[in-house]
Design a protein that fits this description.
The protein has 227 residues and is mainly α. The protein is built from 8 helices and no strands.
């Protein structure tokens, strides 16, 4: 199979970024430490994913036939909100981590529903699967960043009723019209959420103190252990 058939442009862009980040990350981690390395990687990933989420939504709409514009103007209650909640770095990164997991679950549902509506060769199906992999990659990076910045705090909030938000609730099967509305609502909020994630991570990066303070604490801790 020719390479042009095996890899679509979004997949090639993702592969290229992963290779670039691997090279950049190795050097950045050596010079600036793991925190700066993870923050840089997460910011770059979220930026590319935001652009690809817009492309995914466009592909989705073009695959839904007539009235796709109307489908995407209707809201769905059970779809995760495109917002980051909480105060301070710990709470807000936890919110990013939790909500990324939710969007991955909902996009998995959209993928299964679209498999029944689309031809197996439709590029939409591959793009939906790639979106799930990309979310998992970004989520792992954010989780590691959380553990680096707050090593004594779990990534998820513990306690009764304070765990990760539930995924898509089981219920009556949606008809074709409802599936199309649900899918567009998920992908629209997914795109908007990634835009917020990119801005959040970019602000942390521009702050300049996010990883500096962590590095200072690590150095002080090491000195204390050796004194």
């Amino acid at each position: 199979m020719a390479l042009s058939h095996a890899w679509n442009p979004p997949a090639l862009a993702w592969l290229s970024l992963v290779l670039v980040l691997s090279a950049e990350g190795s050097q950045r981690c050596q010079v600036e430490g793991e925190c700066a390395c993870l923050l840089h990687k997460s910011t770059r990933l979220s930026r590319l994913m935001e652009k690809q989420a817009e492309d995914l939504r466009t592909t989705y709409m073009s695959s839904q036939g007539d009235f796709s514009e109307m489908f995407c103007k209707l809201s769905v209650k059970e779809v995760p909100r495109a917002e980051i909640t909480g105060y301070g770095t710990l709470e807000r990164l936890r919110s990013v981590h939790t909500t990324l997991g939710l969007f991955r679950q909902h996009i998995a549902v959209v993928t299964e529903e679209q498999k029944n509506l689309q031809d197996s060769e439709n590029p939409l199906l591959k793009e939906l699967l790639e979106a799930q992999d990309q979310i998992a990659n970004l989520d792992a990076s954010v989780r590691r960043l959380l553990q680096t910045l707050h090593p004594n705090e779990p990534p998820e909030v513990a306690g009764p009723g304070r765990g990760p938000a539930p995924g898509p609730a089981p219920g009556p099967a949606r008809n074709t019209f409802q599936q199309k509305i649900y899918g567009c609502a998920v992908l629209t909020n997914h795109r908007d959420f990634l835009s917020h994630v990119w801005q959040e991570l970019k602000d942390l990066k521009l702050n300049g103190q996010t990883c500096v303070s962590r590095k200072g604490r690590s150095i002080r801790g090491a000195r204390a252990r050796t004194s």
